[in-house]
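Field reference: sequence -> structure
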Amino acid sequence: MLSWLAERSERLLGFSNEPVSRSGKAYIIGVIILGTSIIIHSAVTCLSQPDATWILLAAVSALLAVLSTSMGRSHEKIGMTLCDVTVFLALFLCGPAAGVMAAVSEGLAFNLRRHVHRVYRQLFNLGQIAIVAAFAGHIFYLTYGGEAPLDREAVGNPVYLLIAAAASGLYYCLMTSGLVARAISFSCRQRFDEVWVRCIDQAHVTSAGALLGAAIFLILY
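Structure field:
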């Protein structure tokens, strides 16, 4: 019975004929399960709030993701930075749950635009970005010391806000690249550190997005 369920799960997720080790499959499924639970919790949290700003930011994030993948390689990083701006603006204006929804919207658009066909890859992309966005949001508020969402009148020294945003953005990128690199290392049977070095080159992009989001928050509010 268990072997039948395992086989059906592998077919459903698209693992068939994929060079993914047993430990790699367990890792990917674990990320998918944790990420899905975070997405569900974040969606329920956002839908229970009267403020619908998060919907607008999630839509903008998805649109920017589509546009960024349509750009040439030389301009793609600009589009990715703008996506990160909307994610962190959602985090600042509406809280970590809204940041998760904006990030997941970006992930959905990325899957569609890049024609990601394997189900497990689609779900892994959404799961890992939800995990990272949730933790990045909580790390920001723990570092800054405020309550979610940010209250402009309660913001003290803006330098502290920018420092917390940069730290959260750096974590966001390091964790995202780490989760993806681990999956690639399992699939391609390469050393994790070698793959991570190749995945980590976007660190400055996400940190820049977090800083820009914080700056826009300070200007608007």
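Note: Residues 22-220 form a domain with the Arp2/3 complex 21 kDa subunit ARPC3 fold (CATH 1.10.1760).
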